[in-house]
TrEMBL record, chains A, B:
<dbReference type="InterPro" id="IPR009057">
    <property type="entry name" value="Homeodomain-like_sf"/>
</dbReference>
<feature type="domain" description="HTH tetR-type">
    <location>
        <begin position="23"/>
        <end position="83"/>
    </location>
</feature>
<dbReference type="InterPro" id="IPR001647">
    <property type="entry name" value="HTH_TetR"/>
</dbReference>
<dbReference type="Pfam" id="PF00440">
    <property type="entry name" value="TetR_N"/>
</dbReference>
<feature type="region of interest" description="Disordered">
    <location>
        <begin position="1"/>
        <end position="24"/>
    </location>
</feature>
<keyword id="KW-0804">Transcription</keyword>
<dbReference type="InterPro" id="IPR036271">
    <property type="entry name" value="Tet_transcr_reg_TetR-rel_C_sf"/>
</dbReference>
<keyword id="KW-0805">Transcription regulation</keyword>
<protein>
    <recommendedName>
        <fullName>HTH tetR-type domain-containing protein</fullName>
    </recommendedName>
</protein>
<feature type="DNA-binding region" description="H-T-H motif">
    <location>
        <begin position="46"/>
        <end position="65"/>
    </location>
</feature>
<keyword id="KW-0238">DNA-binding</keyword>
Length: 213, 213
DNA sequence: GATGTTAGTTACTGGTCGGTAACATGTCAA
DNA sequence: TTGACATGTTACCGACCAGTAACTAACATC
C-alpha cells in the first residue's frame, strides 16, 4: 500500500505495484509498444523496456500476447489504423474532389514529416529491421502498401487522370520518398518541403484533359 | 596443412586455419561486412558472423578495427564510394548533356532496384537501425545525402532548369522513394518501374524554356 | 470467511552480444 | 637456428535478450 514509486515528470510510464485488469494492461502495453517501437525500432527495444514503460509486469505481457512477435504484429495493426486514419482525414477535407483530396494528403504529410522527432514510415522501418521477406511483419507491410496503392488508384481514376495507374505509382513513390527523406536529410528541410509542389505538378499534368478534381 | 575444412558451394566464406596478412584480412573483413550488413542489417549481424564469413579470427577484426562501430563506419565509407560510383557511371554516359545524365541515373537505378535480393539504400537502412541522430553513422548519412543533393543541383543548374533547387529536391525525393518502395512493395514491381517516366516528366517540365540537356 | 481467478514478484533458463586475455602457431629475417 | 612478430585458437567476461516457473498478493463471488 505504501508505494514509494515516483513517476518521472512528462513520462507516460505507469506506477508499479498496482494491479491492472487484463484488457486494461493490454492497452497500456500497446501504447508503450507504439511509443518505443516507433521511436527506437522494433528490434532495438526489449520486452523489459516495454513492460516497464507500460507499468505492467512481464508475465502480464505474455498473458496478453503469445510472444514478442505477436506484440509486434499488434503494433503494426495499430500503426495501420493510424496511417489510414491520416489518409482518410486528409481526403475528407475535399469530398467529391479527388485531385484536391490527393493534394491535401501531401500537404498534411509534409507537415507531419517535418516535426523534430519524426521517425519516418513505421512500415518501412520494420522492413529494414526484418530482412526475411517471409516474416509475418514483412507480409503485413506488403498488404499495407497494396491497400494504399489501391486507394490512390481509386482517386487518380476518379480524378480522370490520363493514366491513373501511372499517376498512382508516381504519387506512391513520392510518399515513400518523403518518409525516407525525413530520416536521411534533416527534419523539415529540403526535399520534404518540395513534395507538395511536385505532387501538384504530377496531378496537374496527368489530369490536363479532364479537370475532374 | 591437412585442412579438412570444406567450403560451401557458392559461398564466399574463406577457409579457416590459414594465416592472413593484416591488410589482406582487412579486405576480407570489409567484404564480408559489406555483404552481411547490407543484406541483413548492421544491428542484426554480429561480429562472429562477420569474422566467420571473412574466414578470419575475431582477434584479427579487433586488430584492424577498434570496435564494431568502427567496422560499421568503414562499411559506410565503402558503400559511399560504391554509391557515387554508380552515380558518376550513369552521368558519364552523356557528357555535357545534364538533363540526359539525370535521366540516365533514374533508368539505371530502376534496373538495380528491381533485382530480387535488393535491400534498398544502405544509408536509409542504418538511419532506421540507429535511432540516435548524433551517432557517427547517422552523421555520415547526413553528409552522404548532402553530397548527393549538391551533385544533383549541379546538374539541374547546368540543365537550365527554371528552379534548379526545386527540381533537385524533387529528383532527390524520387530517389529515396525508389529505394524505399523496393522494400515495401515487391521487388521490380509497380512504383519502381514508373520512376524513370516520372523523372522524365519532372525534368522536361522544369527545363521547358531552355533545352540545355 | 473460504475459494477461484487474476496479477505482481523474484529468480531463473539458455542463448547471443561485443569485447578481451592468455596462449599456441605460423612466417620471415637475421 | 633463433628470435621477433603477426596471426589463429580457446576460453572467458559482463551485459542483454526472450521466455518461463514458482510463488505471493489482491480481487470477486459464493
Amino acid at each position: 500500500m505504501s508505494d514509494s514509486e515516483t513517476l518521472k515528470p512528462g513520462s507516460t510510464r505507469r506506477a508499479r505495484g498496482t494491479q491492472t485488469a487484463g484488457p486494461e494492461a493490454q492497452q497500456h502495453l500497446l501504447r508503450a509498444a507504439d511509443e518505443l517501437f516507433y521511436r527506437e525500432g522494433v528490434r532495438s527495444v526489449g520486452v523489459d523496456a516495454v513492460v516497464e514503460r507500460a507499468g505492467v509486469n512481464k508475465m502480464s505481457l505474455y498473458r496478453q500476447f503469445s510472444s514478442k512477435d505477436d506484440l509486434v504484429m499488434a503494433y503494426l495493426e495499430r500503426k495501420d489504423e493510424q496511417f489510414f486514419g491520416y489518409v482518410e482525414k486528409s481526403f475528407a477535407k475535399h469530398p467529391g474532389e479527388p485531385a484536391r483530396q490527393l493534394q491535401q494528403y501531401f500537404d498534411d504529410l509534409a507537415v507531419r514529416a517535418s516535426v523534430e522527432d519524426y521517425r519516418g514510415c513505421p512500415f518501412v522501418n520494420v522492413s529494414v529491421e526484418f530482412s526475411d521477406t517471409t516474416h509475418p511483419a514483412r507480409q503485413f507491410v506488403f498488404r499495407n502498401k497494396e491497400r494504399l496503392m489501391a486507394r490512390l488508384l481509386e482517386l487518380t481514376t476518379a480524378a480522370g487522370a490520363d493514366d491513373p495507374v501511372a499517376l498512382a505509382n508516381g504519387l506512391g513513390l513520392m510518399i515513400e520518398g518523403v518518409y525516407a527523406a525525413s530520416q536521411t536529410y534533416g527534419p523539415g528541410c529540403g526535399p520534404i518541403l518540395a513534395a507538395p509542389k511536385v505532387a501538384a505538378q504530377l496531378i496537374a499534368a496527368a489530369c490536363s484533359g479532364t479537370q475532374a478534381g
